[in-house]
Amino acid sequence: MNNKIYLMAALIAFASVGALLIQPTVASAQSSMIDNILNSAIPSSNSNDNNQQSQSSDSNSSSSSSDNTSVAAPISTSLSCGQVIKQSVKLTANLDCKTDGIIVGADGITIDLNGFTLSGPGEKSSKVGIMFADNDEVTVQGPGTITKFQAGALFSGGEDNKISRVTFTGNEIAVFETGSKNVVIEDNLMFENSIGVAAHSSSGSKLTTNLFKANDLAGVTLVNSAKNELSMNTIQGSVNGIFLDGQSTENIINSNNVLQNRGVDLNNGNGLPTNINNNVFSDNNCNTSVPDGLCLGR
C-alpha cells in the first residue's frame, strides 16, 4: 500500500517529492508523461484575445455594450479536434480525437458539452481533453463526458475557472491543476480514472459535491498546494481517498464521505501531524486516516 502512496505523490509532483520514492523507474516514466502534457498545453495561436474584440465590434449595431461579450450564450457549432476556441460554444456532436480535444484560447467563455462525449486516443497517450493555458473565468459545463485522455481537463495557470456536471472516466487524471488559482470543481462524476483530481502548486480551489468512484490511486491528491477547500464530496474505491503531501498547507477538508477505499481514506503527509502543515480536517465520514483521528468519531 505504501508503495502506491509514494508513487502517487511522485506522479503529481514531477518527482519533487523524490525523497518519498520507492519505485523510481516507474515514477520517472510517469513524470515524463506529465511533462509532455505541460509542454503541449500552450495554444499555438498568439492572438488569444483579439477574436472577442473583433466579435464585439462586429455586433455593435445591435448592442452598445462590449463588456458583456464574455458572458454571451454559447453558440451551437461543429468543432474539430485540437481546435482553439475563442468564443462560447455548445457541442452538437461527439468528438473522437487522436489529438488533443479542445484548446481554450480566450478568457470569459463557456464551453457547453450539451450531453455529448469528448474522447481521446487513450489514457497512456500525451493528449488532453480540454486544455486551459493561463486562461481566466472560463466555464466548462455538462452534462457530457470526457474520456480516454491523459488528462481530461488540464489547468496550466489561470484563475477563476470552473468545471461542473461533467463525467470523467477512463483518463489517467480526470482534472489536473498546476500553478492555477481559484478553480471551482463541482457536481462532477469521476470514475475509473487513475486519479480523480490532482493539484500541484495550486491554491484557492473549491471541490464540492463531486462523486469519485474506483479511481485507482486516489480520489483527490494535493502536492505543494495551499488554501484549497474540499467539502461534501463522496470518494470510494481508491488506494487513497484524499492525499495531501507534507508541503500542502492551510487546506480545509470538511464534511466529505470518504469510505470503502483500499488503503487510507484520509492521508495527511503520510502521517504528518496537522499542526505541522496547518491543514484542517473536520466532520469527515471515514474509517481510516493517517495520522489517526481525522475521521468523525474516530
From TrEMBL:
Region Disordered, residue ranges: 43-70
Periplasmic copper-binding protein NosD beta helix domain sequence ranges: 126-289
Pfam families per the UniProt record, alphabetical: NosD (PF05048)
UniProt superkingdom: Archaea
Gene3D superfamilies: Single-stranded right-handed beta-helix, Pectin lyase-like
Residue stretches of biased makeup (Low complexity): 44-68
Protein name, as recorded: Periplasmic copper-binding protein NosD beta helix domain-containing protein
Source organism per UniProt: Candidatus Nitrosocosmicus franklandianus
